[in-house]
Design a protein that fits this description.
The complex is a heterodimer of chains A (about 210) and B (about 220). Chain A has about 210 residues and is an alpha+beta fold. Chain A has one domain: Jelly Rolls. Helix content of chain A is about 30%, strand content about 20%. Chain A has six helices and nine strands. In chain A, strand 1 (about 105) and strand 2 form a beta hairpin. The relative contact order of chain A is 0.16. Chain B has about 220 residues and is an all-alpha fold. Chain B has two domains: about 40-130, RNA polymerase sigma factor, region 2, helix turn helix motif (Rna Polymerase Sigma Factor, Chain: A), CATH 1.10.1740; about 155-220, Arc Repressor Mutant, subunit A, CATH 1.10.10.10. Helices cover about 60% and strands about 0% of the residues of chain B. Chain B has ten helices and no strands. Chain B has helices spanning about 10-15, 15-20, 45-55, 55-75, 80-100, 110-125, 155-165, 170-180, 185-195, 195-220. In chain B, helix 7 (about 155-165) packs across helix 10. Chain B is globular, with a radius of gyration of 19 Å. Classes of the chains: A alpha+beta (about 210), B mainly alpha (about 220). Chains A and B meet through helix 1, helix 2, helix 3, helix 4 and helix 5 of A and helix 4, helix 5, helix 6, helix 7 and helix 8 of B.
């Protein structure tokens, strides 16, 4: 079954254009791995990028070809080794360092677990979430946007059901209480805007001293 | 920047007779039997696919002379001329190294080269990665009903997208151009143009819907 909840146009265009921050891009790439329909949409957006580049023109350095000619080596066509099966799509495995069994879960509250990891953008907070079967998402408050991609199991949010590959796109106004369906634990990728740091006067005071 | 065809192109037929034979004689071109006389008439997607098979340096020079100025112009939108020159070279070397992975059935050479340039730009100017799906990933969900044989190949899809872009109202084309060239998110574009974010988003959505429309409608052709 392919996903029924898709990536919004603004995210897909920014992803194709290359202006989307890395954390959001990871959520989009994870969904794309599981969604043929959105890959077709992406192809159209990237074709637009290719054609926009096609009509640009600037003379390169006169000796650019000679310089590049001198740098050409034997072409590489080494395929990356792949496992036999995987739950986490490749873009996510690249960050986690392997499939689900390599995830170092940390309990949150009395139920549920999370695994946080870093991307290069410094603007988003990225983590895997494990919601126990039948339970609501623990510790759930966020500012700004939140993207959630289901990787295993399913959750229900109001009337809507989200299964593997589905992406939920929520903002801080969205009143939502995602709850795992009773059959199995639900594992998701969750990306939010990074929490504001250094808001207290004390931290601002010591910041210059600590050079952070 | 200009849209003119390089005057040097006229001499290419003499220098690259093999590549000229690649020039598209497909159903969308006017088949007059006359040999193409400029780079604009060479099927770059067929050329890139052949480079992937044969790794012919003369073919690659022809591809380079077409794309290098465009890739450099793209990079120059974000960085200095020196940085743009270096990133152009890195992009074209990556094109050479990865040409064997190019599949014309997935899109035009211009699209493929754009994505390589885009990823290098993100890495160079923002020190970020651009996570991407991998078709060989065991977790990858393939198409359930694969597209029929009438799927658009290389330059055919590029031609449709080019026509679609040319037909966009200027305000929609502008937001799309800013998104792709200026490394700007839609909220930054809104600020730069002094428009509400909703207006930028809706212009972008309309532009995108039209482009998808031309590509998808053509997929149904007999």
């Amino acid at each position: 079954m392919t996903p029924r909840h898709h990536v919004a146009d603004d995210l897909l265009i920014d992803y194709a254009a290359g202006s989307l921050a890395e954390g959001w891009s990871l959520a989009v790439a994870t969904h794309l791995s599981l969604c043929p329909e959105c890959r077709a949409r992406l192809a159209a957006a990237e074709a637009a990028g290719g054609q926009l580049m096609e009509i640009l023109r600037l003379d390169p350095e006169p000796d650019a070809w000679a310089a590049v000619r001198a740098r050409l080596g034997a072409p590489e066509t080494v395929p990356t080794p792949q496992p036999k099966s995987a739950v986490l799509p490749k873009p996510l495995r690249d960050y986690v360092g392997g499939d689900l069994e390599t995830v170092r879960w940390k309990a949150i509250g009395t139920a549920g677990a999370q695994f946080r990891f870093k991307t290069g953008d410094g603007r988003t907070q990225v983590r895997l979430l494990k919601i126990p079967a039948g339970q609501p998402v623990p510790e759930h408050s966020h500012r700004g946007r939140e993207l959630t991609v289901v990787l295993a199991g399913a959750f229900r949010d109001g009337e809507l059901l989200f299964g593997r590959g589905d992406i939920e796109d929520a903002d801080e106004q969205t009143q939502h209480i995602p709850t795992a369906t009773p059959e199995a634990d639900c594992i998701c990728l969750a990306v939010t805007d990074a929490p504001l740091r250094f808001t207290s006067w004390l931290v601002r005071l010591v910041q210059p001293i600590l050079r952070i | 920047m200009s849209l003119e065809i390089s005057p040097a192109a006229a001499s290419w037929q003499k220098r690259f007779p093999a590549a000229v034979r690649l020039a598209s004689g497909g159903k969308r071109s006017k088949s007059t039997g006359v040999m193409p006389s400029s780079e604009a008439e060479i099927d770059m997607s067929a050329l890139l696919a052949r480079i992937g098979r044969t790794h012919d340096v003369a073919d690659f020079e022809l591809l380079f002379r077409h794309f290098a100025p465009r890739v450099k112009a793209y990079m120059a939108r974000t960085g200095s001329a020196a940085a743009a020159e270096e990133l152009m070279q890195e992009t074209m070397i990556a094109v050479w190294n990865k040409a064997g992975l190019y599949q014309p059935g997935k899109g035009a050479a211009s699209t493929w080269i754009f994505t390589i340039a885009r990823n290098l730009r993100i890495d160079a100017f923002r020190r970020e990665r651009h996570p991407e799906f991998d078709e060989n990933d065991p977790a990858f969900q393939p198409e359930i009903a694969p597209a029929a044989d009438n799927r658009l190949e290389g330059e055919e899809s590029a031609n449709l997208v080019r026509e679609g872009l040319a037909a966009l109202p200027p305000d929609q084309a502008e937001v799309l151009r800013l998104a792709f060239f200026e490394d700007k998110s839609q909220s930054t574009i809104a600020t730069a143009l002094g428009l509400p974010l909703g207006t930028v988003k809706s212009r972008m959505r309309l532009a995108f819907a039209k482009l998808r429309g031309v590509v998808e409608a053509s997929g149904d052709r007999p």
